[in-house]
Amino acid sequence: MPGKALLMIPGPTPVPEAVLRALSQPMINHRGPEYATLQRDVLAGVREVYHTHGDVLIFTASGTGGLEASVVNTLSPGDPVLAVTIGAFGERYAQIAAAYGANVRRLDVPWGRAAAPEAVSEALRRNPEVCAVLLTHNETSTGVLNDLPALARVIRERAPEALILVDSISGVLAAPLETDAWDLDVVVAGSQKAWMTPPGLTFLSVSERAWQANRTAKMPRFYFDFARTRQWLKKDQTPFTPAVSLLFGLREALRLILAEGVDATIRRHIRLARAVRAGVAALGLALFAETGRESNAVTAVRAPAGIAPRALRRVLRERHHVITAGGPGSLESEIFRIGHLGYVSEGDVLATLAALEMTLAALGRTAPAGAGVAAAEGVFAEPSEAEA
Amino acid sequence: MPGKALLMIPGPTPVPEAVLRALSQPMINHRGPEYATLQRDVLAGVREVYHTHGDVLIFTASGTGGLEASVVNTLSPGDPVLAVTIGAFGERYAQIAAAYGANVRRLDVPWGRAAAPEAVSEALRRNPEVCAVLLTHNETSTGVLNDLPALARVIRERAPEALILVDSISGVLAAPLETDAWDLDVVVAGSQKAWMTPPGLTFLSVSERAWQANRTAKMPRFYFDFARTRQWLKKDQTPFTPAVSLLFGLREALRLILAEGVDATIRRHIRLARAVRAGVAALGLALFAETGRESNAVTAVRAPAGIAPRALRRVLRERHHVITAGGPGSLESEIFRIGHLGYVSEGDVLATLAALEMTLAALGRTAPAGAGVAAAEGVFAEPSEAEA
What we know:
2 copies of one chain form a homodimer.
Chain A: E1 6-7, H1 17-23, H2 33-50, E2 55-60, H3 63-72, E3 80-85, H4 88-99, E4 103-108, H5 117-126, E5 132-136, E6 138-139, E7 144-145, H6 148-158, E8 163-167, E9 186-190, E10 201-206, H7 208-216, H8 226-233, H9 244-260, H10 262-282, E11 298-302, H11 309-320, E12 322-323, E13 325-326, E14 335-339, H12 346-362, H13 371-381
Parallel strand pairs in A: 1-12, 3-4, 3-5, 5-8, 8-9
Antiparallel strand pairs in A: 2-10, 6-7, 9-10, 11-14, 13-14
């Protein structure tokens, strides 16, 4: 048998059979009535997931395209912005703003840690003129979940008019998100994360404050233009030909997600993440993320002394067909990352931990066989919230 | 039976079963070896179709994203460019350049006509400082095919160093394209046209001259950045998560296209287009495109006097399940468009012409029944070049 792979990376994530099948529907006219229904259905689902009554836009692009869209539609060259970076993707968000001429002030948090609300508050006190704050919800590169509601609160206290632009590409559905209640202006997501859909679509919520900013935002844009996209939204269309097949898939994925329930989906992610962390700890491995702010979507694990993460990942892949992710940049020699978002089951987590145990043993590290799996079983034996 | 639809629009186009099925393959790691093979295979196929030995880049986006990429990676704000517009998509290309601050000089050709090489030569004589010319290969909105090799020749005579940027989104594979031999600098294509693949991918060839220009091009960019994309190309990856499922589909579509042969695919398009034109003429309808420059991909037809194109298209759709496209902008009340590119057969063309005959009769226009189909049959009865 060829390797039956377990895709445990933080995106693209495994896609359910029903969604894969939905991709294969015959092509339709993107200016016809069938498409209009498709787009309406999908956007209603995305709004429900986002907990927003505002506009949600959809673009054919990777999540990075969505980040770019959030910047170029709300800012002008020279605008002072505060980029709160806690890892590689926060870094990318800052780079995008700089590439389009924003005056980027930075609050660089050491990788592995979350942004402290007091530090953000202090940064805004020192930079009262910033008109936007760039935040990462879940930092995929380090496995850290920011305390988004707390950060949004201090931003609203210090800078009531500042835009809050949020990279939640790997956050939405893996962690709570209350777009309207937390007063977030643009929240960017990507189809290939907890949405159980292949990559190629990015979604953005746009608040009234963001639309207001859009009216005077002078950064150049065309493909990602919000205003043009909103015009076509009235006809349930997009200005440019959308990735129809991916929207077919997303509609099916949203059906599955809404049947499970948005809150239940988030609780499932929390539970899986707890099991992974318990298993890893039982194997004597340390986490990269600060305690209490670990991601529900991806766990960054420090490789044991004397074992290169790359070697460990190779055994996991070649011997056990478990696909994991490396660390970003210079962290490649220190950590590896286990993704557990989207269509991932308790069984997948248990199999991954078992493979990790065997891999560590093969690499000469003695750990009590079954310890990691047993620890995860302990988490899974707890009644789920629905049962409790 | 619910309507078995015939999708006769100039994109998205019908997708073969094998390609639809290929979309449904399980997700893979976009940083792993399987993906590297996929990207290598696909780019080799695209290069073969383009007749280029240069670089080809791929972005997750609609074709319009590709047009934007061609501009922002090769130009700086203030750069004088000549936009040769012959329809709505040429207009869009000019708008993109203007949105990013290019100094756009225009050669506006009346819609329905092709650009005369002498007119382009004269425009360059009057504007010797232009550093790029924006051309449309096949103008989807009006059904006109520009004489791309002739245009490229006069540009090279007048402005040897100017970049030739080409929108060939609906041109590639429906009309001859010799990227290297015609010395074209960037040629933009889109997966949902003659490539028989769903929408969501755009391809761009990049000449040495374009790479040279890229070094000093100052228009802001991030998602669509050529240089960053080329860096990752060395690892057979993209900088940002690509639409893996669509690449699975494209690989299968390229297999079908290369099995048929690039030249044979183009000849098929020419043959289908001739049959459509013969059929339409036999029904007494006039074409919108100038004689001799009609597109092989889409035929723009003038609605007969007294019949609104919208009404005609509604009968075609509701009674016969043949989906056609309207005219762009103010032409909506004058023309309708029949797409015949990609996975379209002689049978599809015959059925469309038959439906058009019945529609005209239903709308009170007398035409000899079967005349349109008979005329198309006449074209199909000619030996194909392969048989001749």
